[in-house]
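Sequence only, no structure available. Ideas?
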Amino acid sequence: MMDIWVNLFLIGGLFFIFVGTLGVLRFPDIYCRAHALNKAMTLGISLLLISATLHIGVSDLWVKAFAIMIFQYSTIPLSGHVLALTAFRFSSK
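Reply:
I predicted one. C-alpha cells follow.
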C-alpha cells in the first residue's frame, strides 16, 4: 500500500514540474511564465519530497523534508516576485 502512495506522489510531483516547464515554454510574457513556474514548481517539489520521505521511511527525514518545504514555500514565491518586479521596472523604461 505504501508503494502505491509513493508512486502517486511521485507521478503527481513530476506532473506539476512538467506543467511548470510547459508554462515557461508556452506562455507569452514574463509575468505568466513566472506565475506558472512558481506555482507548479512549489507543489511539484513538495510532492517529490513527500514521495521520497515515504519511500525511505526514516522518521528523522520527515523533519528535514518539512524544513525544506518551509524554506521553499518562503523562497520560491519571493524569487518569482522579484523576477516579475525586475521585469516590470526594466520594461517601463
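The CA atoms of residues 38 and 81 lie 9 Å apart.
Hope that gets you unstuck.
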